[in-house]
Amino acid sequence: MVTAIVFINADVARIPEVAEEIAALDGVSEVYSVTGQIDLIAIVRVREQEQVAQVVADRLNKVIGVQSTETHIAFRSYSKHDLESAFALGTD
C-alpha cells in the first residue's frame, strides 16, 4: 500500500465543492479542510506508486478550482491508530 499526502491550494470560493469532488475520486481516502498556507489535504491510498500519478496528475489536478498541489509519499506510519489496529489483529 502506498500512501500519499497531497497539499492542495484551491479557489477560495470553491473549497467545499473542490473537497467533495476530490473525496469522490477513486484512491482518495480522506480530504481535510485546513488552516494555514494550504486549503485542503487529501490522503491518497493506492496499491502501487504509479497509481499515485494517475490519481493526482490525471484526476485530482484536473478538478475545477484546484490551483496547485504538492504531493508527499509516506515511507511508514507511526500513528497510534495504525499501531493499535496492528496489535488488535487476531484478538476478539
SSE map:
Layout: E1 2-10, H1 15-23, E2 28-33, E3 40-46, H2 49-59, E4 66-73, H3 80-88
The CATH class assignment is Alpha Beta
Tell me the name of the CATH homologous superfamily: Lrp/AsnC effector binding domain/regulation of amino acid metabolism (RAM) domain
What would the principal axes of the Cα set say about the shape?
globular
> Averaging pLDDT over every residue, what do you get?
91
- Taken together, the total number of domains comes to 1
Number of DSSP helices? 3
Report strand order across the widest sheet. Answer: 2-3-1-4
Strand content: 25-35%
H and E string: EHEEHEH
Helix content: 25-40%
Largest sheet properties: 4 strands, antiparallel
Instruction: Report low-confidence residues grouped into runs of 5 or more.
Output: none
Structural class comes to alpha+beta
Number of strands: 4
